[in-house]
Amino acid sequence: GLVSRKTATIGLVIPDVANPFFAEVARGTEDAAIAKGFTVILCNSDWKAEREKMYSKLLRQKWAEGVIAVGSRSSESSLRELIDPLPMVFVDRFTMLPGSDSVWSDNKKGGLLATQHLIDMGCRKLAHISGPTHSPASIARQKGFLLGIKEANVSWEIVKGDFRYRSGYDAGMELLTRDVPPDGIFAGNDLMAVGILQAAASLHIRIPDDLLVIGYDNIAMAEYVAPPLSTVDQPAYEMGRIAFDMLHKKMQDETRESRNVREFEPLLILRESTNRK
Ligand code: RIB
After folding, report:
1. Which residue of 106, 133, 135 sits with most ligand 1 atoms within 8 Å of its CB, as the best mutation to test the pocket?
2. Among 30-34, 82-86, 119-123, which is the least confidently predicted range?
3. Disulfide: which of 151, 163, 190, 211 matches 131 by Cβ 3.0-4.6 Å?
4. Which atom of ligand 1 is nearest to the CA of 188?
5. Which segment of 85-89, 141-145, 218-222 scores lowest on mean pLDDT?
6. ipTM summary value
7. What is the per-residue pLDDT across 13-44, written as a single tens digit (0 to 9) for each?
8. How many Å lie between the centroid of ligand 1 and the Cα of residue 139?
9. Are residues 43 and 137 in the same domain?
10. Are residues 131 and 141 in the same domain?
11. Degrees, nearest 5: CA angle 75-76-77
12. How does 68-84 read in b/e, with b if 16+ C-beta sit within 10 Å?
């Protein structure tokens, strides 16, 4: 049979430790783990599949008892294969894999809500800045965006970003220096939205007078930038906490055949950046 050791350790693989969304997820997981006498090995994949692979190997060598994979870019089945036979929970993506649990928020619906809000506020030329091509959350938000514009008579385009400040800034500089710039931008996450705010400020484009901007995540910073940023809330800390609880249950379940899903509803948070008078 399989050799196993009780180490009371789990692995948590996130894409980017500098992104406050993932930092909050990690805090939620760590607090829940400590409460149950577990410690957490934090691994930062930098959105790279080969790092996810390297860390999966490492976590098994260190006798981790389970793994939580957040927003990963690898395919579910390849990750599952790497982690096997350890119990595993996916966060920030939905999985149909038998035996694997997931905690996610309905990103397609969130993308739709953000897009409809811009349209409701009178925008006629929309742009969406997407996240990295392989991010399941980004793909779902983009679907929501396309659904929203389908129902309205507006012009639109999608610019590729990578969920970091700089790509939001670059996309903003490109879009806002055109002859006819967009009047509404839906950024795939808050960090890119903050980059857009900075691009607009440097071009003397006023928000919300000339341009509306909405982000995604509702990181704490969204409330403190100028102007305060409208966004779509995901309960990052809670998602991390629940992921550990699901993993903990799974570690005690010998059969590990169940597939549990905890889905959160995205919530529109309205602030000054979309408050056109
Ligand atoms: O800000 C990082 C983003 O990547 C979040 O929106 C999260 O859902 C992830 O996929």
Report:
1. 135
2. 82-86
3. 163
4. 6
5. 85-89
6. 0.96
7. 999 999 999 999 999 999 999 999 999 999 99
8. 11
9. no
10. yes
11. 95
12. bbbbbbbebeebbebbe
Ligand 1 site residues (CB inside 6 A) read 19, 21, 71, 92, 131, 135, 137, 163, 189, 191, 216-217
Is 3 contained in some domain?
Answer: no
Distance 72 CA to ligand 1 centre (A): 10
* DSSP structure class, residue 134: T
| Amino acid (1-letter code) at residue 174 | E
Atom of ligand 1 nearest to the CA of 191: 1
Whether residue 193 sits in one domain with residue 258: no
Tell me whether residue 1 is in a domain: no
pLDDT score of 3 more than 70 = no
Task: Give the structural domain span for 68.
Answer: 9-105+234-265
* Ligand 1: nearest atom to the Cα of 22: 2
pLDDT of residue 258: 84
Residue 4 lies in a domain: no
The CA-atom distances, in angstroms, between 121 and each of 116, 171, 174, 211, 233 are 9, 22, 23, 11, 19
Domain count, the chain: 2
